[in-house]
């Protein structure tokens, strides 16, 4: 093994030197040792670091696609010193802090009377084992080897892309000496839409229809789509639509990624909008009652209850349901908890569907 050549001969490291890198006295707890694989800077990378950028998009962007031009800033190899960081022919000197190793041993307390030793990157030379004197540094990059440069990049949000999908600009990331530049990776973050909800390639929306449309049918522009088109729908003849009926419009969902000529489906939940008090005040209630199905009566309740109480009517909001339940209760008999191992509690949960309504 190349790192262990010499085995006690010539100037090579002896076994005592090797083990001294892993062990240290640990007091009463015994010796403690740590292993370190690779140098302080880690293995040599095949390319520069990638830049990850979160980019917010709307559902319209993902439906229609778009191109975006962005002003960006990146690190590029200094043209003055070609990435050496040195002025002219100046050469770096061995770091006095780490003696050229790029790392040094650090001893930390890991417990009572126990110490641990590990290798740490040298902060003085940033793990390189050598450094330039101040007067030998490149004037353009101040010895940093890279400088900041502004550029303009264009990204393409393709039709059908989804939340958290990545757009990679290969080689557009920060440059480092002697390694290819990293990538710039845009991670899409889709904003919540007010009208549509997406699942895969399908879309879902809510549309209000009148009581007349529910009973007698309709033929009208039902929704305005994500590309601005109106979508006209005609309900089947003599079809009565109940509350929260769902219809499917084939081929009006999201475009399929990389196959934008194909689309998913659009699901529409139809919500029946009841007439207003103002409308009811203007019509002949007797005539309307004659047209509508008959009301239910007490005779429809079977079996008939022996006791009937009169209750008051009051409008409310479903969000008030359970508002006085704080899920906090105590057992009057604490011994019962001990008898059953102390298990107890109350569970409650619920979820609201997102309010995504179309006109």
TrEMBL record:
Keyword hit for Repeat: yes
Positions of CR-type zinc fingers: 65-150
Keyword Repeat attributed: yes
Single GO molecular function: Hsp70 protein binding
Start-end of Basic and acidic residues biased regions: 295-307
Residue ranges occupied by any CR-type domain in the UniProt entry: 65-150
InterPro entries xref list: DnaJ_C (IPR002939), DNJA1/2-like (IPR044713), HSP40/DnaJ_pept-bd (IPR008971), HSP_DnaJ_Cys-rich_dom (IPR001305), HSP_DnaJ_Cys-rich_dom_sf (IPR036410)
Protein name: CR-type domain-containing protein
GO biological process assignments: protein folding
Keywords tagged on the record: Metal-binding, Repeat, Zinc, Zinc-finger
Biased composition (Acidic residues): 308-339
Classification via Pfam families: DnaJ_C, DnaJ_CXXCXGXG
Region (Disordered): 294-359
